[in-house]
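Slide 14.
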Amino acid sequence: MNNLTASQTDYLKAIYLISLKGEVKVTKIADYLNYSKPSVVRALKNLRDLKLIIYENQGLIKMTSKGKRHAKDIIRRDNVLKKFMIDILGVDKEQAAIDSENMKHAISCYTITKLEEYINNVLNIHDDEFETDDCVYDCNSEICASCGRFIAE
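Slide 15: predicted structure.
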């Protein structure tokens, strides 16, 4: 995941979240990220070349299993970092969202895993906030529709 740019991870996360609500098309991604359609098309071609999505011009966009794994990891990073900042450091939600957005692109999978273990085992905070498999995120909300878990913008 560390080989992906911040922009690529933002696109993957957007595609994943949109896909949970239905079909993914260029227009939906452009609206979600507030980017131009030509910018989205360029990014999609890049993600396709990386085998993270399946995309044919003017068609539906689908994530590959590799793309889904990356998207879920991005969401996990957001959740772990925000959980640590909000619940342990006492950072307010807005600032934690800003900081986690910047930090998630630079932090290694190893360090995220260690931080998650620290939160779960050392601090004995056991909630399922770090899991994303069963969540249904609304593209216009920061909360999972089924369980109420928080996700970064």
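Speaker note: The beta strands are 53-55, 61-63.
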